[in-house]
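Handoff note, outgoing to incoming analyst
You'll be picking up this chain. Sequence as last confirmed:
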Amino acid sequence: MTAVDPRDATEVPPPAPALAAPPVAGPVEGPTASPEAASSLASPAASPVAAPSPASLSPNPTPPPPTEGVLGRTYRALTLGIISVVSLIAFEASAVNTAMPAVGHALDGIELYAFAFSAYFTASLFAMALSGEWCDRGGPLAPLFTGIATFGAGLVVAGCAPEMWLFVVGRGVQGIGGGLVIVALYVVVSRAYPEALRPSVLAAFSAAWVLPVIVGPLVAGTVTEQLGWRWVFLSIPVLILLPLTVMLPALRKLPPRKGGEGMDRRRIGLALAVAAGAGLLQYAAQRRDWVAVVPAAVGLVLLVPAIVRLLPKGTFRAARGLPSVVLIRGLAAGSLLAAESFIPLMLVTERGLSTTLAGLSLTGGGLTWALGSYTQSRPRLEPYRERIMGIGLLLITVSILAVPLVLFGGVPVWIVAVAWVVAGFGMGLNISSGSVLLLKLSPPEDAGSNSASLQVSDALGNITFVGLSGLLFSAFGGASVDTGGTPDVTNAASGGQPAAFAAVFVAMAAVALVGSWVATRLKPAESGLATVPSGGAKTASVAHPRTPSAPAER
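Most recent structure output, in case you need it:
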């Protein structure tokens, strides 16, 4: 659902590479990763020639990474299972974006349009922190399958909703499931694959979006127009059976977690406070009267102290290293999703497109997202990862600014599709690299908590900027738009509010531009170790390499 790095010119001599842990052979063939792997996740390619590391002098030196790929015999079942889960989530995301204008019209809930998106991310924010602790203490199997089942239940609630508020509740249930799933998937990647294969696995995340993004808008639009929007939601739970069947055998072969530590209840409580605070702020923003002061104040009291403790120390001042990796995820994901959420509605109400055509305008972005993820994963681009992430956010900025040009009657609507092709490529450059950088800075035993911090930032960015977009949309008269327009209806006849859409896109372009600056601070400080004290996330003491790590995921 990224950047230029004017880094210091002084080079630091490359340290000895820390090699990935080998697969552990079990009684039945399957991918595993030793939980005792070294906490230093420096890139194996940091230096072609290096002095022996201390690990290499130990009685049990770590062997070099395997040459087998992610679709090789050892990893094939697990990789296909991961692709199935991501494809399910991708199809749902594409379908919901396409169907939402019809949902808002049918349930007479255009004033809650933004809530239908932000409710998902508000609920997922809490679920991500819970999943991180759950994975670190008991492994990823239980949270992954619980999340998939909860996700399906939310689809049923949304599809059967007789009123808009109940539809929003269903989206929240989906968010709980999605939050559990996404963090568990990151932990699976960290534990089951050696470091050399992680870029390719994360690239598979992006590849898993390709087919859903192509067929999702077309299928959802056709179903909405021919059968009704409810079937867009009620038909998806059937797909849950596929990933359940494919992933279970492979996940059972992962080594069990050792140790009797319980979950960090403080961290889970902080996530709950953040989710509750964000929800109250969204509610207050929609009311825009004196009564809204009370929920707004309570929301701030809950949100601000909790989020400061939940994310790495220095995140909100863009401290170098892990804090900026976490911050840039929220800026990139939030700005793009907020803009994307209003594109179908704008094309339907302002330019009279059908639901299907409006949804198809986003298809190209999904394809180029995968292309951008593949591009940044190339080994020869490894030394330029931070710069690539910055360039990606600049592409997103320009693309979002190009979208509202179609509010002028003489501008062809295909400009939106072209702009989103560019935005998707920029997002692929950015998001995938951030995921790899985070795993690089995380010891295996803390991968769950740190992955949760990254996803919490993602969700918080989505909540904040979708909520802000909803507020701007309402403030500029967007709540009065008519979602019942038909193709070839002119802007004047459909009662559109072009200023409301323009306000959303200009604001989100500004957010993406800030993200391009944050990308200049992704490399850890020029000290011997990249240790970052954190309020919630945990970081490894990682030797500072000359080159960063490698790529990908949508």
